[in-house]
Amino acid sequence: MKKSLKNSCLCFFFNTILCISCLQSQNFSTLLNPSNSFISQRIESSNSEGFIYFKNSSDLNEGELFTIYKSASGLFANDSMILIKSAEDEMGYTHSKYQQYFKNVKVEGGEIIEHAKKCQLIMLNGKIVEGIDISIDPIFSEQQSLDSALAFLSAEKYAWEDPDIEQDFKDDIGDTSATYFPKGDLLLSYLPGATIESSNYRLTWVFIPHAAKFSAWRNS
Fold first, then answer.
1. Which residue in 127, 126, 146, 93 sits closest to 201, CA to CA?
2. Alpha-carbon distance 68 to 21, whole Å?
3. Is residue 18 pLDDT above 50, yes or no?
Protein backbone atom coordinates (compact mmCIF):
# COMPACT_ATOMS: atom_id res chain seq x y z
CA MET A 1 0.00 0.00 0.00
CA LYS A 2 1.33 3.39 -0.97
CA LYS A 3 2.14 5.86 1.77
CA SER A 4 1.11 9.48 1.32
CA LEU A 5 3.69 12.26 1.59
CA LYS A 6 1.14 15.07 1.50
CA ASN A 7 2.49 18.25 3.11
CA SER A 8 5.79 16.54 3.87
CA CYS A 9 8.02 18.75 1.75
CA LEU A 10 10.26 21.15 3.69
CA CYS A 11 12.46 23.72 2.00
CA PHE A 12 15.69 24.35 3.91
CA PHE A 13 18.24 27.06 3.16
CA PHE A 14 21.49 26.32 4.99
CA ASN A 15 23.13 29.60 5.76
CA THR A 16 21.07 30.61 8.79
CA ILE A 17 18.19 31.03 6.31
CA LEU A 18 14.92 29.13 6.71
CA CYS A 19 12.47 31.06 4.55
CA ILE A 20 11.66 32.24 1.06
CA SER A 21 11.30 36.03 0.96
CA CYS A 22 9.30 38.12 -1.49
CA LEU A 23 10.87 40.68 -3.78
CA GLN A 24 11.35 43.85 -1.76
CA SER A 25 13.01 46.13 -4.25
CA GLN A 26 12.27 46.74 -7.91
CA ASN A 27 14.65 49.09 -9.69
CA PHE A 28 16.96 49.29 -12.66
CA SER A 29 20.12 51.20 -11.74
CA THR A 30 21.87 50.90 -15.11
CA LEU A 31 18.79 50.67 -17.32
CA LEU A 32 17.35 53.88 -15.84
CA ASN A 33 20.63 55.75 -15.53
CA PRO A 34 20.32 58.97 -17.60
CA SER A 35 23.95 58.61 -18.69
CA ASN A 36 23.10 55.27 -20.31
CA SER A 37 22.28 56.93 -23.62
CA PHE A 38 21.84 53.64 -25.49
CA ILE A 39 18.86 52.79 -23.29
CA SER A 40 17.54 56.24 -22.35
CA GLN A 41 16.96 57.24 -25.96
CA ARG A 42 14.85 54.13 -26.48
CA ILE A 43 12.66 54.38 -23.34
CA GLU A 44 9.22 55.96 -23.52
CA SER A 45 8.50 55.82 -19.76
CA SER A 46 9.01 53.82 -16.57
CA ASN A 47 7.37 53.52 -13.15
CA SER A 48 8.20 52.69 -9.54
CA GLU A 49 6.85 49.14 -9.90
CA GLY A 50 9.76 48.21 -12.14
CA PHE A 51 8.10 48.49 -15.56
CA ILE A 52 10.01 50.02 -18.47
CA TYR A 53 8.16 50.92 -21.66
CA PHE A 54 10.05 51.29 -24.93
CA LYS A 55 9.30 53.67 -27.78
CA ASN A 56 7.59 52.36 -30.89
CA SER A 57 10.67 53.49 -32.79
CA SER A 58 12.99 51.37 -30.64
CA ASP A 59 15.14 48.94 -32.59
CA LEU A 60 15.64 46.56 -29.66
CA ASN A 61 14.55 42.99 -30.21
CA GLU A 62 13.70 40.46 -27.51
CA GLY A 63 16.75 38.86 -25.88
CA GLU A 64 19.25 41.39 -27.25
CA LEU A 65 19.60 43.27 -23.95
CA PHE A 66 21.14 40.20 -22.34
CA THR A 67 23.39 39.21 -25.23
CA ILE A 68 24.41 41.85 -27.76
CA TYR A 69 23.90 44.81 -25.40
CA LYS A 70 24.70 43.04 -22.14
CA SER A 71 26.69 45.88 -20.55
CA ALA A 72 23.87 48.36 -21.23
CA SER A 73 21.53 46.29 -19.05
CA GLY A 74 23.81 46.25 -15.99
CA LEU A 75 25.15 42.72 -16.43
CA PHE A 76 28.86 42.01 -16.00
CA ALA A 77 31.13 39.33 -17.44
CA ASN A 78 30.13 36.68 -14.86
CA ASP A 79 26.40 37.45 -15.11
CA SER A 80 23.92 35.84 -17.45
CA MET A 81 20.17 35.93 -18.00
CA ILE A 82 18.80 32.53 -18.95
CA LEU A 83 15.46 32.18 -20.72
CA ILE A 84 13.34 29.81 -18.63
CA LYS A 85 9.97 30.08 -20.37
CA SER A 86 8.21 31.95 -23.14
CA ALA A 87 4.60 32.11 -24.30
CA GLU A 88 2.57 34.03 -26.87
CA ASP A 89 -0.84 35.42 -25.96
CA GLU A 90 -3.95 35.75 -28.12
CA MET A 91 -2.97 39.28 -29.15
CA GLY A 92 0.37 38.15 -30.56
CA TYR A 93 2.54 39.43 -27.71
CA THR A 94 5.39 37.21 -26.53
CA HIS A 95 6.16 37.13 -22.81
CA SER A 96 9.60 35.72 -21.97
CA LYS A 97 10.88 35.12 -18.44
CA TYR A 98 14.61 35.23 -17.73
CA GLN A 99 16.47 34.09 -14.60
CA GLN A 100 19.73 35.71 -13.55
CA TYR A 101 22.81 33.58 -12.84
CA PHE A 102 26.23 34.53 -11.48
CA LYS A 103 29.00 32.14 -12.47
CA ASN A 104 26.26 29.61 -13.28
CA VAL A 105 24.70 29.90 -9.79
CA LYS A 106 21.08 31.04 -9.67
CA VAL A 107 20.51 34.51 -8.18
CA GLU A 108 17.38 34.67 -6.00
CA GLY A 109 15.21 37.66 -6.98
CA GLY A 110 17.06 38.28 -10.24
CA GLU A 111 14.27 37.88 -12.77
CA ILE A 112 13.19 39.83 -15.84
CA ILE A 113 10.10 39.41 -18.01
CA GLU A 114 10.33 40.78 -21.54
CA HIS A 115 7.18 41.63 -23.47
CA ALA A 116 7.57 41.80 -27.25
CA LYS A 117 5.54 41.81 -30.45
CA LYS A 118 6.93 40.52 -33.71
CA CYS A 119 10.31 40.28 -31.94
CA GLN A 120 10.34 44.01 -31.07
CA LEU A 121 10.83 44.70 -27.36
CA ILE A 122 7.80 46.62 -26.05
CA MET A 123 8.14 46.45 -22.27
CA LEU A 124 10.03 44.70 -19.50
CA ASN A 125 9.68 44.34 -15.75
CA GLY A 126 11.51 42.64 -12.93
CA LYS A 127 14.93 43.00 -11.34
CA ILE A 128 18.59 42.70 -12.25
CA VAL A 129 20.93 42.36 -9.27
CA GLU A 130 23.99 44.39 -10.21
CA GLY A 131 27.54 44.19 -8.92
CA ILE A 132 27.54 40.70 -7.41
CA ASP A 133 31.07 39.71 -6.42
CA ILE A 134 30.86 36.60 -4.24
CA SER A 135 32.93 33.43 -4.07
CA ILE A 136 30.92 30.46 -5.25
CA ASP A 137 33.16 28.01 -3.41
CA PRO A 138 31.10 26.91 -0.39
CA ILE A 139 32.71 26.94 3.06
CA PHE A 140 30.64 23.92 4.11
CA SER A 141 30.34 20.81 1.99
CA GLU A 142 26.97 19.59 0.75
CA GLN A 143 26.97 16.75 3.28
CA GLN A 144 27.95 19.00 6.20
CA SER A 145 25.17 21.39 5.30
CA LEU A 146 22.62 18.61 4.95
CA ASP A 147 23.61 17.14 8.32
CA SER A 148 23.10 20.52 9.97
CA ALA A 149 19.77 21.05 8.21
CA LEU A 150 18.41 17.66 9.29
CA ALA A 151 19.64 18.18 12.85
CA PHE A 152 17.67 21.40 12.97
CA LEU A 153 14.50 19.93 11.43
CA SER A 154 14.60 16.78 13.60
CA ALA A 155 11.81 14.86 11.86
CA GLU A 156 11.15 11.42 13.37
CA LYS A 157 11.57 9.76 10.00
CA TYR A 158 12.40 10.97 6.49
CA ALA A 159 10.98 9.55 3.27
CA TRP A 160 14.28 8.01 2.15
CA GLU A 161 14.49 6.12 5.46
CA ASP A 162 11.24 4.26 4.73
CA PRO A 163 11.82 1.37 2.26
CA ASP A 164 8.15 1.25 1.24
CA ILE A 165 8.01 4.97 0.39
CA GLU A 166 11.29 4.73 -1.49
CA GLN A 167 10.04 1.75 -3.51
CA ASP A 168 6.76 3.50 -4.32
CA PHE A 169 8.73 6.47 -5.60
CA LYS A 170 10.90 4.27 -7.82
CA ASP A 171 7.81 2.51 -9.18
CA ASP A 172 5.91 5.75 -9.81
CA ILE A 173 8.58 7.30 -12.01
CA GLY A 174 9.99 4.07 -13.41
CA ASP A 175 13.53 4.62 -12.20
CA THR A 176 15.21 2.06 -9.96
CA SER A 177 17.80 4.60 -8.84
CA ALA A 178 15.24 7.23 -7.77
CA THR A 179 15.36 8.35 -4.14
CA TYR A 180 13.90 10.99 -1.86
CA PHE A 181 17.35 11.57 -0.40
CA PRO A 182 17.78 15.36 -0.83
CA LYS A 183 20.35 16.72 -3.22
CA GLY A 184 21.70 20.17 -2.43
CA ASP A 185 21.67 23.04 -4.91
CA LEU A 186 23.74 26.17 -4.57
CA LEU A 187 21.84 29.45 -4.61
CA LEU A 188 22.83 33.08 -4.17
CA SER A 189 20.19 34.14 -1.67
CA TYR A 190 19.59 37.51 -0.05
CA LEU A 191 19.25 37.81 3.70
CA PRO A 192 15.72 37.64 5.17
CA GLY A 193 14.20 41.08 5.54
CA ALA A 194 16.93 42.72 3.46
CA THR A 195 16.56 44.62 0.21
CA ILE A 196 17.70 43.02 -3.01
CA GLU A 197 21.18 44.52 -3.20
CA SER A 198 24.39 42.70 -4.09
CA SER A 199 25.86 43.33 -0.61
CA ASN A 200 22.98 41.39 0.98
CA TYR A 201 23.62 38.16 -0.91
CA ARG A 202 25.17 34.99 0.49
CA LEU A 203 26.04 31.63 -1.05
CA THR A 204 23.50 29.11 0.24
CA TRP A 205 22.85 25.39 0.08
CA VAL A 206 19.19 24.59 -0.61
CA PHE A 207 17.64 21.25 0.30
CA ILE A 208 14.08 19.95 0.00
CA PRO A 209 13.78 17.02 2.44
CA HIS A 210 10.55 15.01 2.56
CA ALA A 211 9.52 13.90 6.04
CA ALA A 212 7.60 10.65 6.49
CA LYS A 213 6.79 11.55 10.11
CA PHE A 214 7.14 14.92 11.78
CA SER A 215 8.51 15.46 15.26
CA ALA A 216 6.46 17.13 17.96
CA TRP A 217 7.82 20.61 17.17
CA ARG A 218 6.23 20.47 13.70
CA ASN A 219 2.80 20.10 15.34
CA SER A 220 3.26 22.81 17.99
1. 127
2. 32
3. no
